[in-house]
Design goal:
This protein has about 140 residues and is mainly beta. About 5% of the residues lie in helices and about 35% in strands. It contains one helix and ten strands. Strands 1-8-7-2-3 form a five-stranded antiparallel sheet. The protein has a three-stranded antiparallel sheet with strand order 4-5-10, with no helix packed on it. The longest helix has 8 residues. It starts with a strand and ends with a strand.
């Protein structure tokens, strides 16, 4: 089961100053419906991760990470990650901090399997706003 949201460990580590989202290398890994991910996920795992042509274990580096604040909401955003010529059916994703021993940040649940057959696959993230950014602290 994949349960979306920021992970509990990320929230704690953020307050302890263990993450710098603008300078650390963040990655997104994709997972099948057999994965077990959610608030209790503490780090990247290969269990349940997609395995197919066009996909490299560990996922893609998230590019152009920015951290902003507006109307009392701090939020981070990044470019939509893309996998080229893939054949797979991911159900969700894990965002994690590669620079910090693969510590988890957040989990996405796509709702249904996103099946591709030798096609590009892009995770469409919300706009870079305090109301829509994927990573938000209110």
């Amino acid at each position: 089961m994949i349960t979306a949201g920021l992970t509990n460990s990320f929230k704690e580590q953020l307050l302890l100053g263990q993450h710098d989202l603008e300078t650390d290398v963040l990655k997104m890994a994709l997972y099948t419906s057999s994965a077990v991910l959610g608030p209790g996920t503490t780090a990247y795992t290969s269990v349940g991760e997609v395995s197919s042509p066009g996909y490299t274990a560990g996922g893609e580096v998230l590019l152009n990470v920015t951290v902003n604040q507006s109307n009392g909401v701090a939020y981070a955003s990044f470019d939509n990650p893309t996998w080229i010529a893939t054949t797979f059916a991911p159900r969700g994703a894990l965002i994690y901090n590669f620079s910090k021993s693969n510590k988890s940040i957040g989990v996405l649940n796509f709702g249904i399997d996103q099946t591709t057959l030798s096609q590009n696959f892009q995770v469409q993230l919300g706009p870079n706003t305090p109301d829509s950014a994927l990573i938000r602290i209110t």
